[in-house]
């Protein structure tokens, strides 16, 4: 079975009831980060996903890129593509030459890269940890913890630029010892995108098997 790209499961494990008391300093920064990305018509970025589990002697890096416009997105990573046009989601697996099609659920938080800058709004307590230098850039480290103790993720750390409020990385900590870090790079705001960017065209994939789950 092909390993599914972990970013798509990042927010799924974190969609929980609303949090109560919060750290005002962290909240102010997170609100500014959310406002920055929400105001963009579109953006494109490269990323590296680092998956680690010291006990299992596991360390894996996956590089990819993402294009986002509103709630629409197109992810490419590790021989997989995930496209969402706001109505449908296509998950294409290159090795199998197969695409799974499902309805896009706006309430399903596991299927949108936008959760990286909006997930804090529901289901978390957040705390300002410290200022630091990240790749030589003045940055802030903010820590989120889910309200639910049954969640297998017990902590999320975000590093954002102090001046521009750009997301540098998002790191999740699981109870089984797995650590997953998404590091963003080559960020390009307001890139021109066509509607076809977010819809799967099977004509471009000769012989593709279509599994319709709608």
UniProtKB/TrEMBL annotation:
Keywords of this entry: Lipoprotein, Signal
Upper lineage: Bacteria, Pseudomonadati, Bacteroidota, Cytophagia, Cytophagales
Protein name: Outer membrane lipoprotein carrier protein LolA
Top-level taxon: Bacteria
InterPro entries with a match to the protein in the record: LolA/LolB/LppX, OM_lipoprot_carrier_LolA-like
Residues annotated as signal peptide: 1-20
Keyword Repressor found: no
Gene3D superfamilies, per the entry: Lipoprotein localisation LolA/LolB/LppX
A Pfam family annotated for this UniProt entry: LolA
């Amino acid at each position: 079975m092909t390993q599914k790209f972990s970013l798509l499961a990042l927010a799924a494990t974190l969609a929980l009831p609303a949090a109560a008391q919060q750290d005002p300093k962290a909240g102010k920064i997170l609100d500014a980060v959310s406002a920055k990305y929400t105001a963009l018509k579109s953006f494109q970025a490269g990323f590296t996903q680092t998956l680690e589990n010291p006990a299992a002697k596991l360390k894996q890096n996956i590089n990819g890129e993402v294009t986002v416009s509103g709630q629409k997105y197109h992810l490419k990573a590790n021989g997989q593509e995930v496209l969402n046009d706001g109505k449908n989601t296509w998950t294409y697996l290159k090795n199998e030459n197969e695409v799974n099609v499902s309805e896009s659920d706006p309430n399903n938080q596991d299927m949108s890269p936008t959760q990286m800058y909006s997930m804090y709004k529901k289901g978390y307590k957040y705390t300002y940890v410290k200022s630091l230098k990240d790749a030589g850039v003045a940055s802030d480290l903010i820590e989120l913890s889910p309200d639910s103790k049954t969640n297998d993720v017990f902590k999320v750390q975000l590093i954002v630029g102090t001046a521009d409020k750009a997301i540098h990385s998002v790191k999740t900590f699981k109870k089984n010892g797995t650590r997953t870090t998404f590091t963003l790079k080559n960020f390009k705001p307001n890139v021109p995108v066509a509607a076809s960017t977010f819809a799967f065209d099977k004509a471009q994939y000769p012989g593709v098997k279509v599994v319709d789950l709608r």
